[in-house]
UniProtKB/TrEMBL annotation:
DNA-binding region: 45-64
Protein name (record): TetR family transcriptional regulator
Gene3D superfamilies, per database record: Tetracycline Repressor, domain 2
Species whose genome carries this gene: Actinocorallia herbida
Keyword terms, alphabetized: DNA-binding
Any one GO molecular-function label of the UniProt entry: DNA binding
A biological process term (GO) from this entry: regulation of DNA-templated transcription
Keyword Protein transport applies: no
PROSITE patterns from the UniProt entry: HTH_TETR_2
Amino acid sequence: MDPLRRNVNRMVYSFGMSYDAEETRRRIFLAASAEFAAHGLAGARVDRIATAAKANKQAIYLYFGNKEALFGSVVQAKVDEVCHADLLDPAAAGESVGQLFDWYREHPDLIRLLLWEALETAGGPVVGEAERREGYVAVVNDLVEGGAADAFPEGEPRTRAAQDWMFTLLGLVAWNFAVPQLCRLVLDEQDQEIALDRRRATLVETVRALTAARTPAGP
């Protein structure tokens, strides 16, 4: 057993508690998600995460390495929670984007985390970049196989078209939650929820129209 793990276990047992590693990891992860969403990577404090998780700081370093690695793990897990492949169904794009809109509405932390990540990396590489890229490649492949880019020639043009289509849909959805104040102000609504209801309905109809325009005509 390595010294860090031995120290963590010793501290836990000294207080007469049984040690559940998975439960500790879960609490750390939930606390870190809230901390990073509120303060970003630079502003987050490991001691606050430890206090909220009812865990020792050494346990955080043991399970996640350092603050940067923990932030990357949180962002990756949040991205994985929303299965873009299932929600971007080429056969029902409008309805699928409506579901994606609902998911982001119910899980505001993801947009906040992505915005913090963008600010703090300045567009540079992110933690776990290769794995995250592979995830999006898989989604694009599903879109191609589902016919989302059939109007384009096979091969690279079709793949590029599916990539552009996916990013366009994500942008149409995410912007509503990245700048909620603009959503409310532009739509001249006092109630944020009413503004979002309007945006969802418009988004679904817009994507339906865009999908129809991209669909190849029959023989």
